[in-house]
Specification:
Length: 620
């Protein structure tokens, strides 16, 4: 497997890849090795203009203090109370893990909808996201007021490290000279940790009503490249670099899953064995941003999101948190009793800490609670709903599959995919969704497949629903994935935060399946249930077995087969070109394929229902 880094500056080739590459060169066959690679995110919108928020405002200016840790932001956009619209930044709690408070704002080459600023030239550099404050009243202030703006910043996180030509900067709006750069950080060779920055405001050019500041990133504007993260912005008087700390304790990391193996699962499957489905504990952490210890109380609850029924409550007293340190919070859980009349349930897991945080004029209680939602509805998920990268098969006819384990056999009605774009819009391009049975811990026979066209969701982190025409019966272990049928690959969202799905990813080498071990995260593919299964799945239709083999092999112009179930046979060259398509009659068992040059081909066949076979054909 080749692990792909978005900047294309670093490529790591494990020993397995080198051995396979030598074998492929020997057989002159690239299709035997279906590579997976991670790629940056983009979307299906075209907007090659960098949007820059207008700095004018008709309402009254804000008064000091100004504080925002983005914990009050709803959705992916910053709070309009403090910031002008049109920034393009992405508010999230998943792209770093050492931030000073719940939520951060991320700067990259995508606008607010998740679309690249430039889809014409993937290497183009320009200003990307710009976060501009609302006007702030600094009239009648002087240098003696000791006004400082502080903020925490980080490069990369779980994104891509900015290049040496990239930078992140802070600008002040001067009354006389317009925007002036007052701080700048170049990219490359940076620690992936948050750093605190202090900027004094003493120049009279900035001490007026309607003063503004803005953060801007410069880098590749064609996707999720050159990422910078910003948090904990505080502007006020009477501040000193000798005492830079804020008396604030904040919850931080995303709450872990209520479930042991998944982030979501069908309620009827949960009911089959609640103890096995439940995670041993649910965790988050709290961080003390002050230079003195703090003692607090933590309350954890699990409630029904719609009905407000409380299923679980735990209170922990006298939790000691060291100065400028984080501390994990964890709660051991027990199975909850769910009303049998319910067919779905959305659970809210919530931590709340009781603190004495204070800044005069600022509400620091907004970061004292953190929640996560677990859907017990109709689908399975390993991901947390946020895509940090995309994953592709970069070989035509390559396949990927993700394993799911049920409490009991059931049916699958369809699949929801987090479709994302990388460099090129492939809307309308075909690929095949497949469901496989299990044999010895790997995908085996095709239980169902559907040819579909690529589509993109309306916004960032959306899913596209691909339903099957009828429910597919599956055993207690099955696999869901896709077949890449074109040269240009489709891209599926990849979650780098949730590791629940890292050990269940498989790829096809042309003749067999192998487990992927280098990707650390979860593919965002969510099978959902169909009509309720009646008993154990045994397979009611004939399936292709070894009699789908074609002979003689090597071949000199006529191929034969024994199966009477085949409805089509396709022969592909190694470059993916379709050379022959055959629709055999019911009693037909051979066909001439003269005109094929000597070499290696891929031969596909299907019964047109639920079974699929792919073999190698040598012509000489």
């Amino acid at each position: 497997m080749k692990r792909y880094y978005p900047s294309s500056k670093h490529t790591f080739y494990p020993k397995r890849h080198i051995i396979l590459t030598l074998l492929l060169m020997l057989f002159q066959c690239q299709l035997l090795y279906a590579q997976l690679k991670l790629v940056p995110l983009a979307s299906d919108y075209e907007d090659d203009q960098i949007s820059e928020p207008n700095h004018l405002r008709t309402e009254a200016s804000l008064n000091l203090p100004f504080f925002d840790d983005f914990s009050t932001s709803t959705g992916a956009s910053p709070n309009s109370k403090n910031w002008l619209p049109g920034s393009g930044v992405y508010i999230n709690n998943t792209l770093t893990n050492s931030h000073p408070s719940l939520n951060i704002t991320t700067f990259d080459g995508l606008n607010s909808t998740g679309a690249p600023y430039n889809v014409i030239n993937p290497l183009n550099q320009n200003f990307t996201d710009t976060l501009t404050s609302q006007p702030i009243n600094l009239a009648n202030r002087t240098a003696a007021d000791s006004i400082y703006l502080s903020f925490h910043w980080m490069a990369k996180g779980l994104g891509e490290l900015p290049d040496s030509s990239d930078y992140f900067q802070l600008e002040f709006l001067s009354k006389a000279n317009g925007w002036v750069t007052v701080w700048k950080q170049d990219g490359f060779k940076l620690d992936s940790v948050f750093k605190r920055q202090f900027i004094r405001i003493s120049d009279a050019a900035y001490l007026y009503d309607a003063f503004q500041f803005r953060f801007r990133a410069y880098g590749r504007n064609s996707g999720y490249y050159d990422t910078w993260h910003l948090d904990y912005i505080y502007l006020n008087t009477k501040r000193s670099v000798k005492q830079p700390y804020i008396f604030d304790v904040a919850l931080r990391k995303p709450v872990t899953s209520f479930l042991k193996k998944y982030t979501a699962m069908p309620l009827r499957q949960y009911r089959a064995n609640p103890q096995a489905a439940l995670s041993d504990s649910i965790k988050t952490d709290v961080v003390n941003n002050f230079n003195n210890f703090n003692i607090l109380t933590s309350t954890f609850t699990i409630t029904d999101a719609s009905r407000k029924t409380e299923y679980f409550r735990n209170v922990q007293m006298s939790i000691y948190v060291e100065a400028l340190k984080g501390k994990g919070l964890g709660i051991k859980t027990t199975p909850i009793t769910i009303n049998n009349n319910l067919d779905s349930l959305k659970l809210i897991s919530k931590f709340v800490v009781t603190t004495t945080d204070t800044i005069p004029g600022v509400n620091l209680k907004t970061n004292d609670s953190i929640t996560s939602r677990t859907d017990l509805t109709d689908y399975y998920a390993y991901d947390d709903g946020s895509a940090e990268y995309g994953v592709q098969v970069n070989q035509k006819l390559g396949r990927v599959a993700v394993r799911y384990t049920l409490a009991k056999p059931d049916t699958i009605g369809g699949v929801r995919l987090a479709m994302v774009q990388f460099n090129k819009d492939v809307s309308g391009q075909g690929f095949t969704i497949q469901i496989f049975s299990n044999k010895n811990g790997k995908p085996d026979k095709v239980l169902a497949q559907r040819s579909v066209a690529a589509r993109y969701p309306a916004g960032r982190n959306g899913f596209i629903d691909y339903a099957f025409s009828s429910s597919v019966a599956v055993p207690d272990t099955f696999y869901v994935g896709w077949l890449q049928v074109n040269e240009q690959p489709v891209t599926i969202g990849f979650d780098r935060n949730s590791m629940l799905g890292k050990d269940v990813i498989f790829y096809n080498l042309g003749t067999e399946w192998a487990r992927e071990t280098s990707l650390k995260g979860s593919i965002m593919i969510r099978p959902y249930l169909g009509k309720k299964a009646a008993g154990v799945v045994t397979g009611n239709e004939p399936i292709l077995t070894s009699d789908a083999n074609f002979y003689p092999n090597p071949n000199r112009g006529t191929i034969s087969w024994e199966s009477g179930l085949l409805t089509f046979i396709e022969i592909y060259a190694l470059n993916g070109a379709l050379m022959r398509r055959i629709a055999p009659a019911k009693d037909q068992r051979s066909v001439e394929v003269k005109g094929l040059h000597d070499g290696i081909y891929i031969i596909k066949s299907s019964d047109g229902k639920r079974s699929f076979s792919q073999k190698m054909l040598f012509v000489q």
